[in-house]
Every structure is written in C-alpha cells, then in structure tokens.
What does this fold into?
Amino acid sequence: MSHLAWLRGLLQRRKAEREIDDELAFHLDMETQANVERGMPHAAARQAALRSFGGITQAKELVGDVRTLRIESLWQDVRYAARMLSKTPGFLAVAVLSLGFGIGANTAVFSIVNSLLLRSLPVPEPHRLVTVSSDTAIRFGFTAGAGWNYPMWDRLRQRAQAFDGALAFTAERFNLAPSGERQPVNGLYVSGEFFTTVGVPALLGRTFTPADDIRGGGPDGPVAVISYRLWQRRFGGAASVIGTPVAIDEVPFTIIGVTPAEFLHVEVGRTFDVAVPLATQPLIRGKGAAIDQPRALILIVMLRLRPEQSLEAATATLRAMQPEILGVTPDARSRLPANLAEPFTLVPAYAGTSGAAGAGLRQQYERPLWAILIIVAVVLLVACANLANLLLARATARRHELSVRRALGASRWRLARQWLVESMMLAVLGAGVGLGIAAWGSRLIVAQLSTDQSPVTLDLSLGWQVFAYTAAVAAATVVFFGTVPALSATQIEPIDALKAPGGNSSPGGGRSLYTKLGHGGSSGLVIAQVALSLVLMAAAGLFIRTFDHLANVPLGFDSDRVLVISVDTARAARDPGTSYAYYDRLVDAVRRVPGVTNVAASVWTPLSGGGLMQDAQGRVMNPERAVTNAVSPAWFDVYGTGIRAGRDFDHRDVATAPPVAIVNETFARRFLADHNPIGETVQAAGRTRGTVVGLVADAVFGRSLRDTPPPMIYVPLAQSAALGRPVDTSIRISVRSSSEPSSVVGSVATALTAASPDLTFSFQSLADSVDAALARERLVARLSALFGGLALFLAVIGLYGLTAYTVTRRRTEIAIRTALGAQRSQVIGLVLRRGLALTVIGIGVGVAIAAIVTRYMEAMLFGVAPADPATFVGVSVMFLAVAALASYMPARRASNVDPMVALRAE
Amino acid sequence: MPKTEYLQGALDLLILQILALAPNHGWGIQQRLQHVSEDTLTVSQGSLYPALHRLEAAGLLSSEMTLSENNRKARMYTLTASGRRRLRSETDDWRAFALAIRRVLQAG
It folds into this structure.
C-alpha cells in the first residue's frame, strides 16, 4: 500500500513542485514588469524583483511545506508511523506478536481446512467420481466385508459402459528393497483403466491401459507407475526412470510412467508411491493373491458418472446389476458380509469415504476442524480488542502532540488517517509474522494427525487461497482495532495543547479523549475481551475433560507391554490345510524368545478396525449383532482380559473336536438373559454352533473408545475356518513381554524369520494403538488449551495495561489521597475497583455466551455435559484469580508512590 | 473564537476579504492589499504564498491553474462557501475586538 502511495506522492511531488514554480514565476514576471513600467531597465527590474522575493527557494520551501502535507502525506504518514512505533518497542513487540499469533493460527487452521475439506480431488470433474459402498460400511467403517472380490469387479467391468468408466483398487504396503532390510512404500493395486477413468495423465511415460491388466503382465511385462514424490525421492527426478526395473517384494517390475505432482491419491489425505495392475498381484503374493480368492473382499470400486447421469440414476442402474454381480460367486457357504447384502450405495469420492481404512480422514476431522477454526477466530478477536485498547491508551498519551498538530493545521481526517496507517503497519507486520507461524504450525498439526499406520500428507503449499485469507483477516483486524482509536483521535481539541502533558488533575475532569469516548468504549472492549476469553477457556476445559475421560475409559485389557504383529503369509508356500499347525509353530517360535511372557494368535486384535459384525443367536432372540473373533489359547492371558467363569480355549479344541465358544459379559446379558452361559449353545453367522465353555470380561474392540464394548463371541482359531474369511494369508500374533515391547521386537523378528523365511510382518505396540484411537481428541484438547491459554494471556495483558493506565491517569489524585492519610490498602482498592468490576461483568457475559455456544459442541464431548457446572465454575475462578493478580501489581506500585514526588510533577 | 482553525494574525482575514470581491492570483492580491490600504499594509511573498496554500488546504479557498490576461500560467484563487462563512464570523469577531480595544483606550 505504501509503495503505491509513495510512487504517487513522488510523481505528484514533481507536478506540485512544477506548479509552485509556475506560480512564483508568474509573480516574479509581474513584479519585473511593474518595475519596468516604473522605469527600471529590464535587467535591473528583474534583480529588484528577485530581491523583494526574499529568496525564491525559501518561498518555495515554505509553500512546499504546506503542500506536502497533502500530497506526500501518505508516505509521510508511513515514515511517521514507523518512527512512532519504534519509539515504543515494548508496545510494538506485544502488538506484533499477539497479531502474529492470532493471524498465524487462523491461517494455519485455514490452510488445513482448505486442503482437507475444501479442495476437491485434483482430477477433472471430481464430483462425478463416486465410490460404491453400503449404509453399514458407511456407518461402521469396518475393514472386513468393506470391499468387493475380483470376480464381482470383473463382472462390473464388463458392464462399465453403463457409466463413464469404472475402476477398482486396493492399498498395500510394498517392499522395494531387492534384498535385506525392508524399504516399505505405499502401494496400490489398480485396475487397467484406473488412471484414465480418474483422469490422471502421465507426467512422464504412460499410465496403464487395460492391456496391462492381465495375468503375468501385458505386452510390456509386469509394469508399474510411480508417484511424483517417489520419482523425486528415489530416482532424483531423472527422466531416465522410464524403463528402469524396480523390485516390488523382490519381484521385478518395469517403471513405465510417473504421475503429476498434484495427484496424491483418490482419497484425501492419503498418498501412494507405486501402482501396479491388479492382475499382476499373483506375481507378488503368490497363491494368496486376492484375484484368485473369491473370499478376498478387498477391492474398492469407483465409478465415473456420465455427464447427464445423476447420482440417483447411477445408483438405480448399479442396483439393477447387483443380483448379477453378486451371482458370480455362488459359494453358498460363504455368507455375504453386510455391505454386499445391502443395496449398493454411491457416495461422492471426494468426500473421502474409504472402506479400506475406516472412516475417511475428512469425515473424522471435519467437525473438530471447523470448531478449531471458530476458536482461532475468537482468539484473533480478543487480540484485536486488546490492541484497540492499547492504541486508545496511546492516543491519550500522545494527545498533546496530536493537538499541536491540529493547531498547525492538520485536519481531522489527516489525524485519523495517521492512526489508520499505524494500525495498517501493525497489521502488515503481524501478518508477516503470522504467515511464518502458520507455515510451521500447520505442519505441526498435520504431524499430530498422522499415525504410524496411516501417515497423512496434505498439500500445504501456501496457495493463493491462503494468501487471500490471510490478507482478508489482516484487513479485518485493522478495521476492528484501528477504527476505534482513529475515531477518537479526531476528537482532539487544539486547546488541549495548552494543557500539561500527563495526567489530568481531576479524575473526571478535562475533556480528555479517554473520558470522552468512554469509559464506555474501553470498558466495553475489556468486557468483550474477558467474555470471549472465558468462552474459549470453557470450551478448552470441556475438551480437556473429554480427552481425560476418553483416556481413562476402562479398556478391559492391559495395554502395557503388548506387542501386536501383523503377519502376512502369502508368499510362504504352504498347504492351506495345515495352516493352523503352521501358526502354532510360529507362536511357539516366538514364545521361546527371551523377554516374552506369553504369546497368542488371532484373526483380529482390538483397536485395529477389524472384526466381523454378524447376526448371532443365543437363548434370547436379539436382532442386535455380535462381533466375532477367532483366537488361540492364552489369548485372554496375553491381553489381561479376565476370565469370569469357565475356562480358556486349550489343546482340546481342535478342528475335529466339538465346536466351542467363549462369550463376553455383554453377550451373556443380551443374548443369554443372564443365565449361566456355560453350556449354552450360541450361534454365529448362521453357520457355526458352539457350546460356551467360558465367560470373559468386556473389552474395547472397535476403533473408537467412545463406543461401549460390543457383545462378543470368540471361537478357537483352530476351528475358525467356518468364519468365512480368508484366514490363509494373514493373522495377528499378540505378544506379552516382561518389559517394554520395543525391547523384544528384534528378537521376535529373528525368531519369525527363522521359523518361516518368506514371512513378512510388521509391528505395532498396543499402547500405540490406544494412543492413535485418542489422536483426534488429544489434538482438539491440546489446540483448544493452547488457544484458550493464549486468549487468557491476551485478556490479562489488557487488564494489566488498563490498570497501569488508570494509575498513570490518576496519579495526582492518588498522591493527594495518600498525603491526606489514605491507607495503602484503600488506595489499592480504589485502583482495582474498576478493573475487577469489569472482569466480573465480563465473566458473567462470558458464562452466558459459553452456555449457549457449548451446546453445539455436544457431539464432540464425552463424559461431560455441554453446560457442565464444574468446568464453568472452575474456569471462572481461575480467570478471576489471574485477573486479580494482573491488576494487583500496578495497583501495588501506585500505592508506593511518594505523594510529594507525584504532586511536584504537576 | 474559532472552533478549530486559528487565523494566523489578520493576514488570513485580509486575504479572504480581498477574494470575496473577485477571484485573484497571488500577485493580484498583494497589489490590491497595498493599494486599498494606501501602502500601509504590505505582505511579503514568503508570508503570502504559504498563507494562500494553507487556506486552500483548509478548504476556505479553491484554486486553479489558468491563463492570465497576458497568456501566462497563473494560479487563481476563489473563495469557497465555507470561506465566505468564515469571513463573516471572523469579521464580526474582529469588529468586536476592535470595539473593545477602543473602549478601553477611551476609558483611559
């Protein structure tokens, strides 16, 4: 802004100078002419005229001084503002920092919101991409049964002309190391038309065609497409990468293309590194490949709608195909999971719903992010109110200077503009600091969103939207805190210049700008600050308590010192019939590792988003569903889940033995009507009947700690072939260690590799899974605490400043009172009265507002009511205490003033 | 007394009065002042021009570069409406002031 004004001032200055020259030249000529008419010769006439002018340069300067007030004024304003601000470095620091934090926090949260919630997929017409899902899958986000199998996809592909294309994919972790230590990357199996249907061109080389998507590879053999990031990271961005071989799980593939930088994934917040055609999966995973396993339901299917096709029309078309698609796998024994039994539902792809990893990142974080955006906006408001107050006080302190300027001819508008320029400079500096804070802060927040299992990448580049938002925010802040002092500055009277600079002699006397504008104006600002800060603190208190409650939810198992190993046996050549014996061998190998207390295997583990939710029957008919899991003996001991009655599974419960089961307390309550469960017959998924041999305590199972433990049926792993899931390829081994789980990871890895060399596995400590389940609430609690604390800090600074200013203004009055014998406590009380009164009013207003606002937060809370009295009372008391302390300090200093010194200064 | 602007001495008042009759340029104002006051009052360029520009900045005068009678570029000043109002109030004040002084002097 000042650049333009300076330029304009410069150009206009030249023009103005020329005009002044012309004007004075005219006068000179006329004077010369008059002299000539009086009879002087021309040269002498001119000399006389020049002399009478008294120095033409001087005259020009005098005129120039007056004129520059108008023309160069804006640039002058900027220089003047800079000078004034640098004279009070303390104020400058406080102002720029509080603005910087306010603007920076807003920008950081906005850039995340922009990237996660507002930006759609970087593909052409993303709104026409839809994902095939079901109501249940959308609601629960369970892994098992969330996808299609290969034959179904194949059938749909043959029918894809009903739409503008269809695609299927599934995510996988690949190992790019040719040998030795694993180099894991995010991989994707995609159908041949994936890239063309989504609309992603190749940056380099080419993307897949359906010709590549056949077994053993197409005309170019097994091919792979890599992402821009991998291309840069691993191949240094070299153009020669096309045609280079890459080992995917030690199988050679050829790189034929690179995707553009802005394409990360079809799911917001996820990335991929390497994509290979679906049909080449058997090369990597051998006999366990999903395309050969009708029971492998792992494919996510998406469609691209035709231009004229609406969502409803496409849904109807797809549902018409549903019987035919489901009919390709007539395996009656495999009961279909919930999502396939229900009618197909189409959801827009850029909503980020994914079946493969639980609820989409966008859905999970949508509401908390909007809440945080509002919170930081409020923090900024508090910062602005603070600054407005500080600037008002400054204006009062400088009113002597202001009135002198008025006397010298400056107009009201001129003075107001000066203040606006000063505010604008503060805003620009604050915005600069803010952008820096935003860049750093947003990365920090995104890092908190990531967990080891599902790293989050967001494109946080400061795009034009972010800049525009920052500029808008900065401009708004100038309006909010600049106008009030600017308005009051115009009320200065020149007569005030004659009054002594410093305090008034009487408390309410004189027409100082402070008293004129209010007590009203600045008091209102203080009350607003206090109220807003209190609302934020109340929200923070509620979020912190929510997190606290969630973190203390009784898990039903002992999460310390438990290590969960996800074992993938796909490439280990092995006869499916002996799978249980194989797992038993693995478990034994791990048991022998020193430091391991106990080991067990299961299909699923808690907090990993697994588990089949199925119809179950017990003595009581209950439409509710139960979760089933298959576990080996000692599983409950590893997890520390108490056995309430009966026994655990043991060596007796083999595949050929009578089927048995263990149920948890919730199941017994809901399905067995509190009868002694031992001996009861229960049924899971309509295919298995088992006799209950044990009763265990309730334990958390699903991904979210907010849900109460579901009713559960456990069956022995040995008898679990009936579960209807491809147990052949992956199993979880849970280990209880005597000390930290990380201490046994190495030895366990060695033991497993020794037992079965082709095994691939990954580790996750149970404690980390619990942490991840709390990630969202923890983030919200931390951020709201941070911003609530920031708001408190700003409000307290405001109160401190207000009290200090009051003391300065009433110095004489205080001195007189002290001289007349007032006690120190009386003096302190006098000064504190106003500040505390305002604080109390502000707290009252804040509590009222908070009671209304927190109602909207209800969905995010856990274990606390939105209008929880304990929280409200707690933050009010805390605020009052801090405010009292902040006001007390300047008040105390006031009482120490020597009355003689103060009076002498007047 | 004036609300916000101080007329610096009587010069401003005289300028306003001269321009009340007709618009003029700086040279013309200087000449007229000398003429009407019968050479009693003279004003230097160093005082006149800053005063003119200041009065213009305060909105009491407006100005324009025009061609003078001998085809020269000159800046012509005109009294504005607010200038006229100010002239009236200042004249009243001045008269009251002068009357008061005369009274004091007569009272001896």
In short: Chain B has a mean pLDDT of 83. The helical segments of chain B are 11-21, 26-36, 45-57, 81-107.
